[in-house]
Amino acid sequence: MNKSQLQQHDREHLLHPFTDFNDLGNQGTRVITSAEGAYITDIDGHQMLDGMSGLWCCNLGYSRREISEAIYEQLNKLPFYNSFFQCTTVPSIELADMLADVTPAGMNNVFFTGSGSEANDTNLRIIRRYWDLKEQPEKRIVISRKNGYHGSTIGGASLGGMSGMHKQFQALDYIEHIQQPYWFGEGGDMSPEEFGVHAARCLDEKIQELGPDKVAAFIAEPIQGAGGVIIPPETYWPEIKKILDQYDILLVMDEVIFGFGRTGEWFGADYYGMQPDLMTFAKAVTNGYFPLGGTMVSDRVADVIKAKGGEFTHGYTYSAHPAACMAGIATINILRDEKIIENVRDNTGPYLAKRWAELAEHPIVGEARSLGLVGALELVKDKGSRARFDDKCTAGAVCRDMSIKNGLVMRATGDTMIIAPPLIMTTEQIDELVEKAHRALDDTARAMA
Ligand code: PXG
Fold this sequence. Notes:
- The chain contains 17 helices and 15 strands.
- The chain is of the alpha/beta class.
- It folds into two domains: 31-63 and 339-448, Aspartate Aminotransferase, domain 1, CATH 3.90.1150; 65-337, Type I PLP-dependent aspartate aminotransferase-like (Major domain) (Aspartate Aminotransferase, domain 2, 3-Layer(aba) Sandwich), CATH 3.40.640.
- The protein has a seven-stranded mixed β-sheet with strand order 4-10-9-8-7-5-6, sandwiched between helices.
- It binds 3-[O-phosphonopyridoxyl]--amino-benzoic acid (PXG).
- Residues 55, 115-117, 120, 149-151, 156, 221, 225-226, 254, 256-257, 280, 282, 293 line the site of 3-[O-phosphonopyridoxyl]--amino-benzoic acid.
């Protein structure tokens, strides 16, 4: 099939995730046909620097044969066996061991799933099971945050704080949402430090309002990813820690985007010095080469579930899929052997911070923020008042298209442009990324004038 035939068949038969089908019908899909290193190529032969690591998952880029070969060899040896009914496989045990090793101290158990959404549903099941076994069944409410993203299953989307998603289904009624720590958008006249404490205190207020004996857990991404790379002020997590220490409430950190090195530490929890009770992961655990997710379970929680016995009635056919686990093992080996995460912490992260900050000088950029290998640009019409161009987020959509035209995949979340490039990026590629982003901003400014 040629390009237009592919696009036509795509329109006729493929329902895409998070897609406005009118827009899709008008524009047609971009057909991506190959990828190498940090670059992807479409069917027209247009090569683009992938500033989004696929969908926040191909942290090692696209050319790691060690991972594809590990999957292939496993598929030839034992393509599938389940982990139900007292069965197990060698790759799943080995990966569980490795995960216990690379995750924060005290997290020594893993429950495998096929995705991040399934892992957050698993968290809801574990949280309920834990408090039931502790004979505190009244602890049922899970507090989450507005504009957080935790997946698209009923549980994941209920935990998420994306109001547009809630409108399309009936969200679970035992989940409550508090303010996000989004200083640029919601900080008003407060300094970032003041606002960080303010946003954290919202958790305390919510706990007081609901009653500490009713609250089971608090879930949050260390930094919001899909919500627009919202890096909380430095005061935020220490204040949250204080509040959680005060009440008997579990902390779930959703590391689906920030796990496996994005901040320059293995996990966001390491970066912020937090000790979560549960930790969701997916995406980069296999470098995006095979679907795999899971939740790391702390000793505090796992000991109760294991010691009290009784069946935990939860699981997925593909929990601990052996080929997925082999992909995870190969990925972690590369991250470790090639000191990829240390390189982000010591070299490419600081380099991106310096180069990305230069974009704040651009007339339509209200803020340029970054951390490790993740960054965001706030597009504004007026820097002083932070006023946007319009309320339809046209500037973001235009900038995304201009960026692609200039050979860079940069995403738009509203009028916030975001990047999360592969961790293997060199400083030369960071220069290329910043230059292409600059050109996209120039083109956007012209188009919006
Ligand atoms: N938690 C977080 C923090 C995520 O970012 C999920 C859970 C769900 O994972 P699965 O594997 O079920 O998709 C995610 C996924 C975007 C975008 O537009 C982000 C995600 C997925 C799709 C699109 O940024 N994150």
